[in-house]
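User: Sequence in, structure out. Go.
Assistant: Echoing your sequence, followed by the structure tokens.
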Amino acid sequence: MKLNRRVLNRTTLDRQLLLARSPLSPLRAIERLVALQGQDVNPPYYGLWSRLASFTQEDLTSLLYGRQVVRGSLLRSTQHLALADDYLWLRPMMQAPMSRARQAGFGRATGEVDLDELVTLARGHLAGRTLTRPQLRDLLLERWPEVEPMALGWSAQALVPVVHAPPSGVWNRGGATPFTLAEEWLGRPLDDAPPIERLVTRYLAAFGPASVMDVQMWSGLTRLRPVIEAMPLRKYHDTEGRVLYDLPDAPLAEEDVPAPVRFLPAFDNLIVAYADRTRMMTDEQRKAVCVGAVIFPTFLVDGIVAGMWDIKDGVLELRPFGPLPERAMAELAAEGAGLLAFAGAPGGTLAWRHPSEGRRASA
């Protein structure tokens, strides 16, 4: 069976809770999405606001302080928020790609460092307490004073399962990132050998149907084809002939289902969940949205990325990629007013920067 981009788009939006705001609790929504990209502090809050019928900043903050949700390095070696129960198996599964990323970034600088010793020392320094990366780095420098300081700090973070205790990850709270040992914070050991099939199943439930390359792009894992092909999954093809996999009982959305406008935050996992992202945007739009390691915040019109946005000093600036229908502009204005209120600027201003004019126009 062949699936066109419209069916893939609507099915993806449905599984991402973006066709209609969901009555799920924030905890269950995070579980549904596997993890929320948390490179910056506020985007996970915006992402849940766009997806849930009822959500406040305190809802997520209380989950972080209650240790039901944790923030740490996970998918693609980047910061994510995940359920504590999911972190216990996700983090061990991510060790191989995290070790590769560490080697690529700091292998030369740490060539004379015994990594097993570094892990033991880092664990010892963190036992029973919380340290910032600079504090941990300085302690490790006592053992390796000739090694590049940044390489020691980042190597410890990559090789030792640590989480960032609140207020790290809390709305509008930046500053130094505190580390604490994951097993101490959670009060439980991490899984020894979690099955890869668990990750594939969870991914497809949130992002499917998808190809092997899509799963690998999202997770940072490699060589998944034998695992996925051996699973009892349903197979489709897209219009380009690529094989797409899905859960056997997962429904597909109808291609004519209306898709409301939605605001996606910076680094939202939906934008980086596929090797082929044409179900969400054109290749030209991808070049504007995904610049190096940065994923800009976007807004969706009719389910497709139609521009980028930013909030600064009470102004929500919308930068569409091209002309928008009046109805879409009205919907964006209404949704944008809600976004401003959520961000703490209920009397804020909506401004448009039209690509052909290169200037801002208030609306």
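User: And one key feature?
Assistant: The longest helix spans residues 326-342.
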